[in-house]
Amino acid sequence: MGRKLKLAALALIAVAAGVYVNNTNLLTPHPSGKPVLLAHRGMAQRFDERDVKSDTCTATRMLPPTHDYLENTLPSMRASFEAGADMVELDVHPTTDGQFAVFHDWTLDCRTDGQGVTREQSMTKLKMLDIGYGYTADGGKTFPFRGKGIGMMPTLSEVFASFPEKGLLINVKSREASEGEKLAVVLNALPAERRRTIMVYGGDEPIEMIRRRTPDVRTISRAAIRSCLIRYIAYGWTGLVPPACRNAMVLVPVNVGPWLWGWPNRFLNRMTDVNSAVFVLGPYSGGESSTGIDTPELFARLPQSYSGGVWTNEIETVAKLAGKSKDQSATR
Q1: Omega before 264 cis (within 30°)?
Q2: pLDDT per residue over 43-68, tens digit each?
Q3: Helix, strand, coil share of the chain (percent; to 5)
Q4: In-domain check, residue 266
Q5: Which domain covers residue 85, as residue numbers?
Q6: pLDDT value, residue 26
Q7: Is residue 25 in a domain?
Q8: Are 88 and 168 in contact (CB under 8 A)?
Q9: Are 70 and 78 in contact (CB under 8 A)?
Q10: Helices 204-213 and 222-235, interaxial angle, to 10°?
């Protein structure tokens, strides 16, 4: 019995040593470079995020503005790239005349002077709206952007034409497979090298369609990211990467990262080997989603010399922290 126990103990030690060697960062080359910064909705007006639900009109909860940019517009995206963003996230809706409108909300009533479901309009009509109409920081006493957003809702084609080489993350707002099919047609019309700079996320059904029809575009959906992270935590110690983590955009809440085998460097290398890109979000707290890395305190929670992706709603602040702002670049 004593001999068997010794053999069992030695076997257990050998397995533990193997797991350690297979996942330690001490033996892993450090990915070089600065973090890849993703500006959520571009340069946007911030709002009070407390108790926000899916149908909350965030334009009426705007914080006092510190800049004049409106989310999901070409000037907002341009300002984000100039501030140091490597990628910009944008939201799309199909229109009745066969285009994709770039706009966040499912309906027009909150932000614009229009009414109704966004995807039930023609792009011609959407171009006539004032997308800054509904923003107020004082309970409706003043509307600082009213009249300034007329005609500023862009099409996805206009975004592609304006930023032909920039990284873009497209958010599909519905759960309709047909929308994924329509977007796949648009993406497949682009050169292959352009598709490699684009990622798509959203509802499970449209994302699955894009994954099948446009396999060289990296994607993620809620079900896919859950499957990716849970399965990786379960058996990633072996070095195997779950199918849902492959050719994907892997979203990692900053408080979940330390639970991932080989975090950060070995994990980043494994994801790179399967053509996936990792982006860290704010902490996950059991709700529907996480926030971005938006403050110096949250940025400080990233691993030292972290070079993966960072999702932020505050690109100006985070670009400076990451040493990627235009002002810093000019002085180096």
Answers
A1: yes
A2: 999 998 888 887 899 999 999 999 99
A3: 35, 15, 45
A4: yes
A5: 30-322
A6: 61
A7: no
A8: yes
A9: no
A10: 80
Comparing CA positions, the residue from 143, 58, 147 lying closest to residue 105 is 58
Burial of 75 (0-12, 13-18, 19+ CB in 10 A): middle
Q: Distance from CA of residue 234 to its chain's centroid? A: 24
The predicted pLDDT at position 53 comes to 83
Is 52 within a domain? yes
289-310: pLDDT as tens digits: 568 999 999 999 999 889 999 9
Q: How many domains does the chain have?
A: 1
C-alpha 279 chain-centroid distance: 7
Phi and psi for 232 in degrees, rounded to 5? -65, -40
Q: Can you tell me the distance from the alpha carbon of 40 to that of 89, in angstroms, rounded to the nearest whole number?
A: 5
The answer to whether 79 touches 42, Cβ cutoff 8 Å, is: yes
The enclosing domain of 111 has a CATH number of 3.20.20.190
Taking 90 as the threshold, does the pLDDT of residue 125 lie above it? yes
Give dist(CA 104, CA 59) in Å, integer.
Answer: 11
For 145-161, the pLDDT digits (tens) are 999 999 999 999 999 99
The neighbouring-strand residues paired with 90 are 170
Residue 54 backbone zone (phi > 0: left; psi -120 to 50: alpha; other: beta)? alpha
pTM flag (> 0.85) = yes
Q: Where are the alpha helices (DSSP H) in 148-264?
A: 156-162, 177-188, 192-195, 204-213, 222-235
Nearest-angstrom CA–CA distance, 40 and 76: 11
Q: Kindly report the backbone phi and psi dihedral angles of residue 134, in degrees, each rounded to the nearest multiple of 5, phi listed first.
A: -95, 0
Q: Is 193 exposed, middle or buried (0-12, 13-18, 19+ CB in 10 A)?
A: exposed
Please name the residue that has the structure tokens 């050998």.
14
Answer whether residue 45 is part of any domain. yes
Angle of helix 204-213 versus helix 177-188 axis, rounded to 10: 30
Distance CA 13, CA 73 (A): 57
